[in-house]
Amino acid sequence: GAVVSQHPSRVICKSGTSVKIECRSLDFQATTMFWYRQFPKQSLMLMATSNEGSKATYEQGVEKDKFLINHASLTLSTLTVTSAHPEDSSFYICSARNQGRGNQPQHFGDGTRLSIL
Amino acid sequence: GQSLEQPSEVTAVEGAIVQINCTYQTSGFYGLSWYQQHDGGAPTFLSYNALDGLEETGRFSSFLSRSDSYGYLLLQELQMKDSASYFCAVRGHGQGGKLIFGQGTELSVKP
Q1: Where are the beta strands (DSSP E) in B39-104?
Q2: Cis omega (within 30 of 0) on the bond before B111?
Q3: Mean pLDDT per 10-residue segment, chain B (111 residues)
Q4: How many Å lie between the alpha carbon of B105 and the closest alpha carbon of chain A?
Q5: Residue of chain A nearest B50, judged by CA positions
Q6: In terms of Cα–Cα distance, which of A89, A92, A94 is closest to A77?
Q7: Between A43, A105, A108, which is nearest B104 by CB?
Q8: d(Cα A40, Cα A44) in Å, to the nearest integer?
Q9: Count of pairs with CB atoms under 8 A, one residue in A, one in B
Q10: CA dist., res. B71 & res. B45, Å (int)
Q11: DSSP secondary-structure letter at A98?
Q12: Tens-place pLDDT, residues A33-67
């Protein structure tokens, strides 16, 4: 079964709306989670590393004020796309790894397809 | 920085064997992973190599040569359902092991 849950799976909204995406680790605690963005026919681009109890670490070129990340608990990270515009339309995916169990792979949520009209 | 190269597309027939290569350049290396992604879906984990050699998981195998900064994914007895994008990804040191992905190889399996 799924080890990482992501919600919602799809969002369609008007330009200027802020959208919150949740990522939950199931059955394990994740002090670190990752947020990726994927445009059609392209690779997954790491946006930021979400750190429980501290500020997220953003990759170069990613606006931290545009993509707000909150990792308030050991099982939940949220990504808020603020004042979304059509160019923010993309597939957003989170991932987490069970760091408490040795060499475990990253598991991904099912992704959120965001469409801004 | 980190960069990975893999072929953009590969075509093969059902029942065949296909190898998808990946070369990487990294400032820190902590293993090479392979993920499969079907259209519209999330990436699913296939295989991981931290040490040199071959890892076998059913019809899928993955190989790593750290001295050559090279790895490959081998898919045997291809099935139509194997048509998907395949990504190699490097795991860096620290920060919980963030993954940097290659551009992906689109595999088309023909009857």
Answers
A1: 44-49, 53-57, 60-65, 70-75, 84-91, 99-101
A2: no
A3: 90 97 88 93 92 94 96 97 96 73 96 94
A4: 10
A5: A103
A6: A94
A7: A43
A8: 10
A9: 58
A10: 16
A11: -
A12: 999 999 998 999 999 999 888 899 999 999 999 99
